[in-house]
């Protein structure tokens, strides 16, 4: 049971260089997201090569991706994934991530979204007006974020005056953009639970590299 794993796993302390961020090498580290001061938690794991290989092979056939509402007590519905080597590995991965999220948060259902991108969907730093979101990048660079010491929040949204993050004044001198590693499982608090949550954005993509 996932619940037993969450209880028994040993978790690492928060990253000293990134306040309010907790990292781990086990799924149990995700429980740190419930601590008041923690706004981002993730655990790193070894990639399953079959999954990014499958996604590269079927990226065009996946088109804009897939979205479903999955109920915690139900089997994962048919996602209409294209047939190719690695399909079963991805389906099993999605089922596992869904169970991690519903077990951890105790929610009756979850909104599942798989995106295949050839450009960032959210290229500018912003805050999500959500609760706790689970993210996992299987191919390409992972979600980027800033902590408050590196951001002038008045420059978010309209305050940017249409300028890129690097030129709008949002990123303070010496700011470092951090990212959640590829294949890591991350949880991010949104404004609905954290108030002043960490600004995040989708990373730039290399030409020809679907995400």
Automatic annotation (TrEMBL):
Residues 1-23 are annotated as: Disordered. This is Uncharacterized protein. It comes from Thioalkalivibrio nitratireducens (strain DSM 14787 / UNIQEM 213 / ALEN2). It holds the Pfam family DUF1826.
